[in-house]
Amino acid sequence: MMSDENKLSHQFEITGGDFSNGGRTSTSIKEILQEIGIDHSVIVRAAIASYEAEMNVVMYAHRGVLTLNITPEKLHFKLEDEGPGIENVDLAMEKGFSTATEEMREMGFGAGMGLPNIKKNADKFEISSIPGKGTSLEITICLDKTEKK
Amino acid sequence: MPQKTKMTLKEIKELLQAEVISGIDCLDMEIKFAGGSDLMSDVLAFGKPGILLLTGLSNAQSVRTANIIDAKAIVYVRGKKPDKTGIELAREKRIPLLLTKYMMYTACGLLFSHGLPGVSGLSPKKR
After folding, report:
1. B41 located within any domain
2. Is the pLDDT confidence value at A147 over 60?
3. Which one-letter DSSP state was computed for residue A73?
4. In chain A, which residue's Cα lies nearest the Cα of B43?
5. Which of the pair, B41 or A77, is modelled with greater confidence?
6. Closest residue by Cα to residue A64 from A99, A105, A26, A101
7. Residue B92 contacts A, CB cutoff 8 Å
8. Global pTM?
9. SS3 per residue for chain B
10. Mean pLDDT throughout B73-83?
11. What pLDDT score was predicted for residue B125?
C-alpha cells in the first residue's frame, strides 16, 4: 500500500487459472473500502466490478495486476493482464457472448455477463486489448455525489 | 397458507427442512427477499444486497459472490455441501449457510408460496 495526503494506492497480483483463489483480491478490496468508510452502495458496485474483472483474469489470462487508486473524488481500478487478449471487444461486451470452457461454467462463471456487468457498475469503463498479448481495463467509480450514477 | 413478506432464517430452515452448516446463532435474522441461481455471473448481475441466495454451486465462489453482493445468507439446494474454504469464509464473514435436500425449483417454490418475494419484488400477494 502507498499513500500520500489525498491518495491511497493498492496493488494486487492475480494468477490465471487459480480458480480456488479467484475472488480473494476483490474480497480484500471490499474490506479496504469498508475500513475507510466508503458509502455502502458504492462498495457493492466496486466489489462487483472488481470481482468480475478479477475472475476474467483467473479464467482467461496467465496473470494480471490490479491497481486500485482511491482519492476523495473517485475509486480508480486499472487491471492489466498478460494473456490471449480479446479478438473482438465489441462482441465481448454483448450480454451473453462467452468463450468460457466447461471448467469455468462449473465454477459458476462464463455466462457472458462479466464485461457488461462491469460497465453497468462503473461510472466510466474503458477496455483495450491486443490479441496474443493481453487486455487492459480501467474502471472509475465516482465518490463525489454530484457525479455519481 | 400463511402469507408473509419476510421470514426469519429459522422459519426458512423449518420450511426447507434444512441443516444449518454455519451461523446457528443467526437464525433470528430477517430475510425480505430471495433469488436462486447456480450461475454466479447472474447473481452478480441481478442480485441485490440483503438477498437470500439459493444455489447448487457448492464451491467457495458461492460464498465469495454472496459476500461481494452483501447477501444475507445462502441455502444450498439438492443436498450440495459447501466446500471447506467456503465454510471458513462464511464463518469469517458471518454469512449463515443452510443445506436442503430439495431441488432448486421446489425450494424456491416453497419459499415463494409462503410469501417470500423474489429479487424483483414480485410476491404471491401482488400477482
Report:
1. yes
2. no
3. S
4. A108
5. A77
6. A26
7. no
8. 0.90
9. CCCCCCEEHHHHHHHCCCEEEECHHHCCCEECCEEECCCHHHHHHHCCCCCEEEECCCCHHHHHHHHHCCCCEEEECCCCCCCHHHHHHHHHHCCCEEECCCCHHHHHHHHHHCCCCECCCCCHHHC
10. 96
11. 61
Residue B54: its chain A contacts at CB < 8 A? none
B24 CB near a chain A CB, below 8 Å?
Answer: no
d(CA B7, CA B11): 6
Q: What is the pLDDT of residue A146?
A: 53
Q: Which residue of B has its CA nearest to A111?
A: B41
> In angstroms, what separates the C-alpha of A27 from chain B's closest C-alpha?
7
Q: What residues of A are in contact with residue B38 (Cβ under 8 Å)? A: 108
The number of domains in chain B is 1
pLDDT at B110: 97
Query: What confidence score (pLDDT) does residue A1 get?
Result: 65
CATH 3.40.50.1100 for domain A6-147, yes or no, is: no
Is the residue at B75 inside a domain?
A: yes
**pLDDT tens digits, A16-58:** 999 889 999 999 999 999 999 999 999 999 999 999 999 999 9
CB B63 within 8 A of CB B93: yes
Q: Tell me the Cα Rg of chain A.
A: 15
Please judge whether B41 and A112 are an interchain contact, meaning their C-beta atoms are less than 8 angstroms apart: yes
Mutate to test the interface with A, among B39, B42, B44 (most CBs of A within 10 A): B44
Instruction: Give yes or no for residue B48 having a pLDDT over 60.
Output: yes
Domain boundaries, chain A: 6-147
Cβ <8 Å between B45 and A117 = yes
Q: Which residue of A has its CA nearest to B60?
A: A20
CATH number of the domain to which B40 belongs: 3.40.1390.20
Structural domain boundaries enclosing B83: 7-113
